[in-house]
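Practice problem: predict the structure.
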Amino acid sequence: MSAVQENEPQIAPLSSQVQSMQYRVSERSDVLIYAWSVLQFVWQQLSLWHEKRQSRRTLRNLTDDELLDVGITRADARKEASKSFFWD
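Answer:
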């Protein structure tokens, strides 16, 4: 005795067309994941560069007493502030 009634339709196997659609969706999701990771990296770099730029502007605007508290000279502050935003 079978648990499946004999008059119920059988489940047909997937056709090759459905399998190829599944592959395309998977391939597309891989591209989306890669694109998303690239965008995240670019955003992180831009954020880091912006932070450095802001820090160097702040350093440039410190008074001599504030620079003394930090432990750097005015010449060191000028040298650091003159660097481009993408330098370390």
